[in-house]
Amino acid sequence: MTSKAGLFKRRKRVFDLPLDLLTMDESVERCHELIDERGHWRADLNASIVLDALDDHKLREYVETSAISNADGQSIVWASRLLGAPAPERVSGIDLFLELIRHAPNRGDKVYLLGAEEDVVAAVAEIFAAQGVDVVGYRNGFWTADEEDGVVQAIADAKPDILFLALPSPKKEHFVLRHKDRLGMGLAFGVGGSFNVVSGQLKRAPQWVQRFGMEWFYRFIQEPRRLFKRYFVGNAKFVMLTLKARLKSR
């Protein structure tokens, strides 16, 4: 087992944001350490997060204060290698999420699911419970400002070891920062649209598509209107940002 200090020393900066140069197995180990310590959160670096953090100081704060920051997108892996801080591999949110779920029954980790539509999150809770996961609560991702205090209190009362948030960015990051002292979780972990995949609402790209770094395009085909700006406009901006960073480093 790698020491906690050893894992943390492999944190570098890419686009002036922290990135932990960890494999999937090392990320699982690090997450388990953080769950046991309690009060931490994970950041997932992808092209969209990097671009949004340029203007959103709260999103940047969330990434800066994260206890683990993974190369969630293949674009970050490629950019990190170009910029001299090579990530060993992509550690996607959904893959790490499912690994933690796989280990949860043996570790006794209590899980709270927050986000997505009511039927989706309820289906995910049922699927995980059938696998032996201790799901201590779940809620959909839609609430008013007046209801937010109740959402936070329900999570705090459940005392989850892992709080999985299927909320869009930067909503999930802002939510965690606003309530970090009340939530009482071991580790907060954003999972994007993963609940929709687990429930069968969306299909994940085949392994060969993932290996070529084209999972984003597979997702775009399923939701073109929602994801056009994020992937086509955003990816072009990210390429330019990477080239500028490369020239600056030289």
Provide an overview of this structure.
The protein has helices at residues 4-8, 24-37, 47-53, 57-64, 74-82, 93-107, 118-130, 148-158, 171-179, 194-198, 207-211, 215-222, 224-249, and strands at residues 11-14, 17-20, 40-45, 68-71, 110-115, 134-139, 162-166, 187-190. The chain is built from 13 helices and eight strands. The strands form two sheets. A six-stranded parallel sheet has the order 4-3-8-7-5-6, sandwiched between helices. The chain has 250 residues and is an alpha/beta fold. The longest helix is centred in the last third of the chain and has 26 residues, at 224-249. Helix 12 runs antiparallel to helix 13 (224-249). The mean pLDDT is 90. It is 54% helix and 16% strand. The protein is globular. The chain has two domains: 35-198, Rossmann fold (3-Layer(aba) Sandwich); 207-249.
| Rounded mean pLDDT score | 90
Helix content, binned percent: 40-55%
CATH architecture assignment name of the largest domain = 3-Layer(aba) Sandwich
Rg (CA only):
18 Å
In terms of DSSP E residues, the strand content is 15-25%
Q: Give the CA-based shape.
A: globular
How far apart lie the N and C ends?
A: 37 Å
How many beta-strand segments?
A: 8
Helices, by number, come to 13
Report the structural category. Answer: alpha/beta
Classified by CATH, the class of the largest domain is: Alpha Beta
Q: Sketch the major β-sheet.
A: 6 strands, parallel
CATH domain topology of the largest domain = Rossmann fold
Order of helices and strands, N to C? HEEHEHHEHHEHEHEHEHHHH
The number of domains is: 2
Strand ordering within the main sheet: 4-3-8-7-5-6
